[in-house]
């Protein structure tokens, strides 16, 4: 009887313990309580494990790896010493690795699966810089929703996007990932992309078709000196607070759940080890309660920066600075446990990081259903669907910018024309996908040739002219360009000579921009410029279609070529989008999100610069701010873009001339479609604070509206300026709204504007 009683008590104790161990799985409890319950059970090693992210290191549906680092990582995974994995994709792969985490580890904590979903998963939208050219926030949000739907259907629950780095530097390859040079536009796009990935409300994150977003790279990565990748950043606080940080704050306010720090130094301190950025601003002043992941191996790279002597010191500096998860340095998992035991790292720092990571996992619903994102049926139905292709086609059309259209060469006639299509990029089905498209298959884009072939009532002749590249083109290897083979020139010239119109598709290869793709020349690579000039000699009726991931400097083309179309890298539906624009089935409405220089010597060039003490040649001598060999203005300014129709701005008005502090400033302008086509116009509002305690830029974008007008139609466009638009940050990060005179500019781009002014008391 006594033995029986003991057995019952033992069974009861075990049952009670198991219930306590699973208490964090109770969905009725608040998330913070569930985190508390789980963390009480975690060993120090398991806590540090949550701060460790590994790249995919073996074929997860096959046998366990043997030997080397793969076997070590596998053992870490089985022990619960891995909190996240990246580049594991596809339902079968993700389910297999998640089963190890959930079923073989002591506590069964699920992994968060990350992936670079930058401008789509398999069905690709235009590169982000191109999307920014649409100025269409609803379309940009929809693009992110499509990306999230496909990625989540493939097992992924976290993207390393959006990149919200502001950059004025066309030489920097990663401008293709961002929204351009302006912090106001960049902030609006950051918000749209975060909401597209995650949903509009807190609860949306747990839905099956959303994924956690990541605002990167925190901070100032876009200001790498000379545009050289990973280079030094040396900027003042005025630029930091007023240009660099606003899009990150907008992402935070939109609910972004993770941040990624950057590779660069700021004030001599690598961002990964920068307390000022990560603890003082992000987690302190902004009260961000998600987590910060490092960029790839950036903890280890602090040794090369000279900021840490070895991996142990680098780990200590990173965790103290606020970096919560280590991406592929393999240092947190190796060093943090001993650092805590030696008293060099406070366990409170570890607990804070782990709480942040677990919080996001709970918010995603991973503890309630670790296999929420592992549904083969949904994967098959969602990835590459017609609806997704329709959405990215819409985004692609909206991203195209008409830069020049002399003699109304565009739109092309739909019948009775002989058209010569020239350029290797016109037939290319891979380059138009752009960079950062890891899940997309090569040769999966609709080529420009294929798109134009859908219009069958013209005589279309294609000639390559010349290869752009030589040898393989991959994400990780340097490209080799054709600089000698011009054997196709004669055939191209013959086709052009007999054509009514020549469409030339020239520019950069899709892998010529992106990470580690800095350039010192912004011209057409290879023999493309020579090909363009040779074709021009035999037929000047050229429509130049540009494929590129950054602003290019093309002074000869800007002067000589009658029609120029900025078509970026438009993704899966490139050819269809471009053909519909060229033939006038879609009237282009895009506007440049970055200034295009006249030559590379102007870089960095941007519209919202500060005046010097000698801005104009008022005395008729050489002593003023200018170049001796080229105009100081850009070739195409920020916000520039034409349409097949024309628009007239008139009657710019304010509701009064003087405003008290805190009063709203109401601005109106009349816009008329004076051309022959229905069209869209991005009405842009800029201000200038004439005199302030810090010098303010000559113009700052503070509002825009995408307006659609029928032929002959007039609409009154209204803007409201509040203290949110009229103020600025001082060098200590304090937001100020100062009295004085403000100019207001409204127009079609940053250069062509109507002007008025008011006084703020």
UniProtKB/TrEMBL annotation:
Which reaction(s) does its UniProt entry say it catalyses? Hydrolysis of terminal, non-reducing beta-D-glucosyl residues with release of beta-D-glucose
Q: Which UniProt keywords apply?
A: Glycosidase, Hydrolase, Signal
Fibronectin type III-like domain span? 681-750
Q: What Pfam family is a match for this entry?
A: Glyco_hydro_3_C
GO MF term list? beta-glucosidase activity
Residues in the signal sequence: 1-19
Q: Does the keyword Signal apply?
A: yes
* Top EC class for this record: hydrolase
Question: Could you say which EC number(s) this protein's record lists?
Answer: 3.2.1.21
Biological process (GO), any one: glucan catabolic process
Q: Which family does it belong to?
A: Belongs to the glycosyl hydrolase 3 family.
Protein name from the UniProt record:
beta-glucosidase
Q: In the record, what lineage is assigned to the organism producing the protein?
A: Bacteria, Pseudomonadati, Bacteroidota, Flavobacteriia, Flavobacteriales
């Amino acid at each position: 009887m006594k033995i029986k009683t003991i057995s019952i008590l033992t069974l009861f104790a075990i049952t009670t313990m198991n219930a306590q161990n699973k208490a964090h799985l109770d969905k009725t409890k608040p998330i913070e309580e569930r985190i508390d319950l789980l963390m009480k059970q975690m060993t120090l090693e398991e806590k540090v494990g949550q701060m460790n992210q590994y790249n995919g290191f073996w074929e997860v549906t096959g046998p366990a790896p043997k030997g080397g680092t793969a076997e070590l990582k596998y053992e870490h995974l089985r022990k619960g010493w891995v909190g996240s994995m990246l580049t594991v994709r596809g339902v079968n792969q993700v389910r297999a690795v998640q089963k190890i985490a959930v079923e073989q580890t002591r506590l069964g904590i699920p992994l968060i699966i990350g992936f670079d979903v930058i401008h789509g998963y398999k069905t690709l939208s235009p590169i982000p810089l191109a999307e920014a050219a649409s100025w269409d926030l609803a379309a940009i949000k929809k693009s992110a929703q499509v990306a999230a739907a496909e990625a989540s259907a493939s097992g992924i629950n976290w993207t390393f996007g959006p990149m919200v780095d502001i950059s004025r530097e066309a030489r920097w390859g990663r401008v293709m990932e961002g929204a351009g040079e302006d912090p106001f536009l960049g902030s609006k796009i950051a918000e749209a992309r975060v909401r597209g990935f995650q949903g509009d409300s807190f609860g949306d994150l747990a839905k099956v078709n959303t994924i956690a977003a990541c605002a990167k790279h925190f901070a100032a990565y876009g200001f790498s000196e000379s545009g050289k990748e990973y280079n030094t950043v040396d900027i003042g606080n005025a630029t930091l607070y007023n240009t660099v940080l606003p899009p990150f704050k907008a992402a935070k306010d939109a609910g972004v759940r993770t941040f990624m720090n950057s590779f660069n130094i700021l004030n001599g301190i690598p961002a990964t080890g920068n307390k000022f950025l990560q603890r003082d601003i992000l987690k302190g002043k902004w009260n961000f309660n998600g987590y910060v992941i490092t960029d790839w191996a950036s903890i280890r790279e602090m040794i090369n920066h000279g900021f840490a002597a070895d991996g142990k010191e680098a780990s200590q500096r990173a965790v103290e600075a606020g970096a919560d998860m280590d991406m592929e340095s393999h240092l947190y998992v190796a060093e943090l446990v001993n650092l805590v035991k030696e008293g060099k790292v406070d366990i409170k720092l570890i607990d804070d990081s782990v709480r942040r990571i677990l919080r996001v996992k709970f918010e995603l619903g991973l503890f309630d259903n670790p296999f929420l994102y592992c549904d083969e049926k949904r994967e098959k139905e969602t990835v590459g669907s017609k609806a997704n292709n329709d959405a990215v086609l819409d985004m692609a059309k909206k991203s195209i910018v008409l830069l020049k259209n002399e003699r109304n060469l565009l739109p092309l006639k739909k019948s009775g024309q002989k058209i010569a299509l020239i350029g290797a990029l016109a037939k290319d089905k891979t380059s138009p996908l752009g960079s950062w498209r890891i899940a997309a298959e090569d040769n999966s884009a609709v080529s420009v040739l294929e798109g134009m072939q859908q219009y069958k009532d013209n005589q279309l002749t294609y000639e390559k002219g010349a290869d752009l590249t030589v040898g393989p083109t991959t994400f990780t290897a340097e490209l080799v360009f054709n600089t000698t083979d011009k054997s196709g020139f004669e055939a191209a010239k013959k086709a052009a000579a007999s054509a009514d119109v020549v469409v030339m598709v020239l520019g950069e290869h899709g892998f010529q921009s992106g990470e580690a793709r800095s350039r010192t020349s912004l011209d057409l690579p290879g023999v493309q410029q020579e090909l363009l000039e040779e074709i021009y000699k035999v037929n000047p009726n050229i429509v130049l279609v540009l494929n590129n991931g950054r602003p290019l400097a093309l002074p000869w083309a800007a002067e000589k070529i009658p029609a120029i179309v900025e078509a970026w890298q438009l993704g899966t539906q490139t050819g269809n989008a471009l053909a519909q624009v060229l033939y006038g089935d879609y009237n282009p409405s895009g506007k440049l999100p970055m200034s295009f220089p006249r030559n590379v010597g102007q870089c960095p060039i941007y519209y919202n610069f500060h005046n010097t003490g000698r801005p104009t040649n008022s005395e008729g001598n050489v002593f003023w701010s200018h170049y001796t060999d080229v105009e100081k203005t850009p070739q195409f300014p920020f916000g520039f873009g034409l349409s097949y129709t024309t628009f007239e701005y008139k009657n710019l008005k304010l509701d009064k001339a003087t405003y008290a502090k805190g009063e709203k400033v109401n601005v109106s302008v009349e816009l008329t479609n004076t051309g022959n086509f229905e069209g869209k116009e991005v009405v842009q509002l800029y201000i200038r604070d004439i005199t302030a305690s810090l010098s303010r830029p000559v113009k700052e974008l503070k509002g825009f509206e995408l307006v659609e007008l029928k032929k002959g139609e007039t609409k009154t466009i209204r803007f409201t300026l509040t203290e949110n638009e009229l103020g600025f940050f001082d060098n200590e990060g304090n937001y100020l709204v100062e009295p004085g005179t403000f100019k207001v500019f409204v127009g079609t781009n940053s250069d062509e504007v109507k002007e008025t002014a008011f006084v703020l008391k």
